[in-house]
Design brief:
single chain; 419 residues; alpha/beta; Aconitase, domain 3; 5-stranded parallel beta sheet; binds iron/sulfur cluster
Length: 419
């Protein structure tokens, strides 16, 4: 039976010639990821199970990104626990303040994800690495503990939806608009426990940062994973980052998909997700004119250098509206350095923005920009659930960096075209 790309990666890691949707398989994983919130829970399970040494200290990544630099004593204690475990186990890819970044921006940058690999992470946005043709998915902390100890995990083989991309993106339209458009179309459970496989001639027109953004939000449609094919854009990104051999994996001809959607990229318009679901997608002409209090540009969805370049292009020579607080968070140290070297940070400071060291910070209502009751924000993050960024009576509009930057200047949700 013909298999999808995701099924082929699972089969290869399970040592099977064939898998089919719904089948339970035990597969070897290439990398296990945890962060400062989920790792302490996994470590408790790890100890309770009586595990000793990890299966491979070079195939575990522990990233202290959510509440770091530590926002309070609890966060400090959590990081210390993970730090001590990493030292004791000789974990190679332990990233702490000063070299850490938001995990799903950091791991690709460090060359820890490659085509054909199987990656699990105790974080729902682990699906991001599908942009690099890996099968990657979020797991619970107990699975993370077992994965760290044994290098294996159980999977139920997902069925798949196929998204055939055609055309190319217009001015001020990005991967964020594409994925918000798709989630708006299929709903927040439209891909429940399915693979979202992206294919077609339009893929070539998407840069890696756009693909990472699209794959990152597959989980917001309920997907098990999102995956792109590997092409020359992928290879150019991996060059200099990944020295190990990788296996580029395409779906077989005749692979079965439960649903086939064609997305004409040239028809996608700047799109936002209105409160309180990523599926509340609306184009900008459908947004009521309401003042905003804060703009956040950053996160594992849109904190990469191309995102900051677009934001700087919009903000250059302009000022944030008087009553709007603008927080810009480069997703990794390297991106932060690039933003300084390219003069982007100067543009942001001149525009009246606060620029932070890498952290998840406000994305999950952690720190660095919590919303008060009744406040409204535009954010380049991936979730706008009730209370996600602060008070339960605050509101978040999810948007691209271009729209977020324009909104900062306009003082309401708006487009760069209006400036
Ligand atoms: Fe999760 Fe937000 Fe951090 Fe991404 S930036 S890992 S979505 S908290």
């Amino acid at each position: 039976m013909a298999m999808t790309a995701s099924q082929k990666i699972l089969a290869a890691h399970a040592g099977l010639d064939q898998v089919s949707p719904g089948q339970l398989v035990k597969a070897k994983v290439d990398l296990v990821l945890g962060n400062d919130i989920t790792s302490p829970v996994a470590l408790a399970a790890y100890r309770e199970a009586g595990f000793g040494k990890v299966f491979d200290p070079e195939r575990i990544a522990l990233v202290m990104d959510h509440f770091t630099p530590n926002k309070d004593i609890k966060a400090a204690e959590q990081c210390r626990e993970v730090r001590l475990f990493a030292r004791e186990q000789g974990i190679k890819h332990f990233y702490d303040v000063g070299e850490m970044g938001v995990e799903h921006a950091l791991l690709p940058e460090k060359g820890l994800a490659a085509p054909g690999e199987l990656i699990i992470g105790a974080d729902s946005h682990t699906c991001t690495y599908g942009a690099l043709n890996a099968f990657s998915t979020g797991v619970g902390s107990t699975d993370m503990a077992a994965g760290m100890a044994k290098g294996i995990a159980w999977f139920k083989v997902p069925a798949a939806l196929r998204f055939t991309l055609t055309g190319s993106l217009g001015r001020w339209v990005s991967g964020k608009d594409v994925i918000l458009h798709i989630i708006g179309m299929i709903g927040v459970d439209g891909a429940l426990y399915r693979s979202m496989e992206f294919t077609g001639p339009g893929v070539a027109a998407l840069g890696i940062d756009d693909r990472l953004c699209v794959a990152n939000m597959a989980i917001e449609a309920g997907a098990k994973n999102g995956i792109f094919p590997a092409d020359s854009v992928t290879r150019a990104y991996l060059r200099g980052r990944v020295s190990r051999a990788w296996t580029e994996t395409d779906a077989d001809a005749g692979a079965e998909y439960e649903r086939d959607c064609t997305i004409d990229l040239s028809a996608v318009r700047p799109t936002v997700a209105a409160p309180h679901l990523p599926g509340n997608a609306v184009t900008l002409d459908g947004i009521p004119e309401a003042p905003i209090d804060q703009v956040v540009i950053g996160s594992c969805t849109n904190g990469r250098i191309s995102d900051l370049r677009i934001a700087a292009e919009v903000l250059k020579g302009r000022k944030a509206a008087k009553d709007v607080r603008v927080v810009i968070i480069p997703a990794t140290q390297l991106i932060y350095r690039q933003a300084i070297d390219e003069g982007l940070v100067g543009i942001f400071l001149d525009a009246g923005c606060a620029v932070s060291t890498p952290t998840c910070g406000p994305c999950l209502g952690g720190h660095m920009g919590i919303l008060a009751k009744g406040e409204r924000a535009v954010a380049t993050t991936n979730r706008n659930f009730v209370g996600r960024m602060g008070h339960p009576e605050s509101e978040v509009y999810l948007a691209s960096p271009a729209v977020a930057a324009a909104s900062a200047v306009l003082g309401r949700v708006g487009s760069p075209e209006e400036l």
